């Protein structure tokens, strides 16, 4: 499994600078004032760099949802019962959960993976790649062993690779796992050193008493496990989650094939922190779809150096924000391909001498 991770990291290159400058040059000639399509232009240049062509196209889109359970729910850190992680799975497959509806809405394939759900899963349509039946309670000990973390990363790499083989040219990440905002906060604190007051939020909308308990639990998980921020795998194994590890693999596996990765909210952000820790170059392949209402997401994105596309007050996870942002990514590609330049349109050029140039 370590080999799979090492291979994926080794394959992740830099952005294609030549494709980026050609895309930028075309954007500057298109029938519009310079830079007037704003962030769509930035996105277009990034996509050109990721996909290695000045005219990138998105053909097939998929959302990968990794599901896993968390021993730390025994501490009373979520307003939702643990069984929901299991019970919601058929609604993913049938398309009646939040991401079920939104993935269908944007025309993306939905891939649901059990990488660590507590109960045995046998719903047809769910890919069962269970590494273990839920993590250990991070308030008392490690979430999982290093080997299990590597195995779950391997599952993610394999799933992403398979989706790319089937034709995916844009992959969105999603999470399902009751309790998973707690390990995500622990990961954020471990990497940034931020105090739990800054990294712990309300998750499924817990009240003040639970929020306070959650802060103590995260602080305790760090004190008990002493994750080493210079060793991302150590952080993941000690205070992470199985679905978070799976998502680390999806991110690395997609980037290894030069496929852009849309992050969702707080949990996929925690996975991104680990992935970037393991392979800093992967950052350039990431697109932050939205700013979650989970308060600490802003710290996460700042640490990752990513600017969210949407600010929609979402706090569901499942990949819902990432799915909603897919049409923006497609729009950025279409601008490059389908818009005409001033000269192609035979339209009078702008007054160069009157333009503000940086
Ligand atoms: C019905 C339901 C559907 C969800 N879909 C995603 N989450 C989200 O909420 C959970 C994280 O919040 P916490 O750490 O407070 O438990 C995760 O399952 C996450 O995916 C859901 C939560 C619920 C209740
Ligand atoms: O930002 C998220 O992804 C999120 C926030 C709260 C609960 N579940 C997910």
TrEMBL record:
InterPro entries in the record: Nict_dMeBzImd_PRibTrfase (IPR003200), Nict_dMeBzImd_PRibTrfase_bact (IPR017846), Nict_dMeBzImd_PRibTrfase_N (IPR023195), Nict_dMeBzImd_PRibTrfase_sf (IPR036087)
Residues at the catalytic site: 318 (proton acceptor)
Keyword Transferase found: yes
Protein known as: Nicotinate-nucleotide--dimethylbenzimidazole phosphoribosyltransferase
Superkingdom, taxonomy of origin: Bacteria
Pathway assignment: Nucleoside biosynthesis; alpha-ribazole biosynthesis; alpha-ribazole from 5,6-dimethylbenzimidazole: step 1/2
Similarity remark: Belongs to the CobT family.
Function of the molecule: Catalyzes the synthesis of alpha-ribazole-5'-phosphate from nicotinate mononucleotide (NAMN) and 5,6-dimethylbenzimidazole (DMB).
Keyword Transferase applies: yes
Annotated catalysed reactions: 5,6-dimethylbenzimidazole + nicotinate beta-D-ribonucleotide = alpha-ribazole 5'-phosphate + nicotinate + H(+)
């Amino acid at each position: 499994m370590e080999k799979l991770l090492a291979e994926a990291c080794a394959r992740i290159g830099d952005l294609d600078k030549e494709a980026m400058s050609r895309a930028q040059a075309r954007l500057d000639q298109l029938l519009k004032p310079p830079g007037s399509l704003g962030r769509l232009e930035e996105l277009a240049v990034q996509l050109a760099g990721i996909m290695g062509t000045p005219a990138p196209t998105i053909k097939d889109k998929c959302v990968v949802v990794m599901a896993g359970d968390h021993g730390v729910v025994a501490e009373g850190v979520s307003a939702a019962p643990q069984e929901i992680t299991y019970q919601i799975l058929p609604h993913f497959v049938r398309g009646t959960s939040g991401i079920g509806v939104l993935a269908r809405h944007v025309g993306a394939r939905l891939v649901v993976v059990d990488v660590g759900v507590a109960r045995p899963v046998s719903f047809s349509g769910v890919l069962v790649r269970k590494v273990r039946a839920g993590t250990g309670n991070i308030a008392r000990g490690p979430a999982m062993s290093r080997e299990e973390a590597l195995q779950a990363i391997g599952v993610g790499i394999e799933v992403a690779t398979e989706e790319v083989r089937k034709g995916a040219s844009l992959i969105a990440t999603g999470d399902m796992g009751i309790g998973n905002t707690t390990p995500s906060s622990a990961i954020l604190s471990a990497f940034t050193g931020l105090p739990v007051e800054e990294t712990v939020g309300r998750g499924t909308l817990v009240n003040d008493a639970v929020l306070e308990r959650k802060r103590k639990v995260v602080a305790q998980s760090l004190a008990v496990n002493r994750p080493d921020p210079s060793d991302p795998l150590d952080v993941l194994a000690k205070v992470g989650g199985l679905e978070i590890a799976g998502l680390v693999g999806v991110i690395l596996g997609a980037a290894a094939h030069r496929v852009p990765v849309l992050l969702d909210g707080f949990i996929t952000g925690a996975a991104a922190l680990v992935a970037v820790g393991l392979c800093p170059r992967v950052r350039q392949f990431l697109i932050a779809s939205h700013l979650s209402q989970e308060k600490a997401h802003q710290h996460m994105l700042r640490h990752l150096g990513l600017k969210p596309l949407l600010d929609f007050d979402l706090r569901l996870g499942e990949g819902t924000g990432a799915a909603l942002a897919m049409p923006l990514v497609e729009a950025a590609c279409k601008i490059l391909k389908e818009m005409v330049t001033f000269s192609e349109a035979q339209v009078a050029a702008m007054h160069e001498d009157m333009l503000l140039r940086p």
